[in-house]
């Protein structure tokens, strides 16, 4: 059985993302492992050695009580969405979130990580300094990041941004496999600056590899790369954006650019990061 790791802090953002984890689990026949990681605060003063054990025991107990109360809430979310049949196990551990996610994903041979991202209103924020970005960077697992204002919708159209490099073929195969599960269409979009010498040779290679797949290939010459991507998302009613993890640096640079129209565009769809 496939496995989905769902790191959670039991916030509203996290509970919203849990619906995507449930839907994905149902589609691919997976179980879900929820992970709650808590960090013990170090006392701000030194002369407490005789109380230190009591302080740690109290903090651990508080986290456990919170955990004990919240786990049934996740089960209720599953039942309310007619997904109560999905196997869910729960892990509570003390440590640092990203480190523990990496360890558990390796130990359990995790197939997907689904995580909510708080405060993501622009694409650039998905890739810059968020916990989700760190998990994307450090885990060799496909990560599905769910922005906080993202309401669940069936995944009907997936956008895969590509440069038509041959190294994008394997990640695109992962995306199309997921698209097959959801019966969704994939749009591949490549944008080059107008001064670039244009060559369609690799597009033909991609078309040959994916000739029996519900996929369309788009190539655009434009200087406003960010604008083209966001317009494409809006006009084509894209439900998910997929990227090859090795191109994340490109996205980081891309979405630091402060272009007026783009920064008002709210990303309310999932971001899929594929290794």
TrEMBL record:
The lineage of its organism: Bacteria, Pseudomonadati, Bacteroidota, Flavobacteriia, Flavobacteriales. Coiled coil: none annotated. Signal peptide: none annotated. One of its GO terms (molecular function) is ATP binding. It comes from the Bacteria. This is UspA domain-containing protein. Gene3D superfamilies: HUPs. Belongs to the universal stress protein A family. Residues 1-147 form the UspA domain. Keywords: ATP-binding, Nucleotide-binding.
């Amino acid at each position: 059985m496939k496995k989905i790791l769902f790191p959670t802090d039991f916030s509203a953002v996290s509970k919203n993302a849990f619906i995507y984890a449930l839907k994905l689990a149902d589609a691919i026949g997976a179980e879900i492992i929820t992970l709650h990681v808590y960090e013990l605060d170090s006392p701000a003063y030194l002369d407490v050695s005789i109380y230190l054990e009591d302080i740690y025991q109290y903090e651990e107990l508080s986290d456990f009580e919170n955990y004990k109360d919240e786990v049934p809430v996740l089960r209720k979310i599953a039942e309310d969405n007619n997904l109560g049949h999905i196997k869910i196990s729960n892990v509570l551990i003390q440590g640092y979130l990203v480190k523990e996610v990496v360890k558990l994903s390796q130990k359990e041979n995790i197939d997907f990580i689904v995580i909510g991202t708080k405060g993501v209103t622009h694409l650039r924020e998905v890739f810059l300094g968020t916990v989700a970005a760190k998990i994307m960077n450090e885990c060799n697992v496909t990560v599905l990041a769910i922005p906080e204002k993202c309401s669940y919708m069936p995944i009907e159209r997936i956008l895969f941004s590509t440069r038509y490099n041959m190294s994008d073929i394997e990640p695109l195969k992962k995306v199309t496999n997921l698209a097959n599960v959801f019966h969704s269409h994939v749009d591949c979009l490549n944008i080059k600056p107008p001064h670039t010498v244009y060559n369609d040779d690799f597009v033909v290679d991609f078309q040959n590899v994916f000739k029996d797949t519900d996929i369309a290939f788009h190539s655009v010459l434009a200087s406003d790369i960010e604008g083209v991507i966001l317009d494409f998302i809006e006009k084509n009613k894209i439900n998910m954006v997929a990227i090859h993890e090795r191109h994340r640096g490109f996205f980081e640079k891309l979405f630091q650019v402060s272009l007026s129209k783009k920064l008002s565009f709210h990303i309310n769809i999932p971001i899929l990061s594929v290794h």
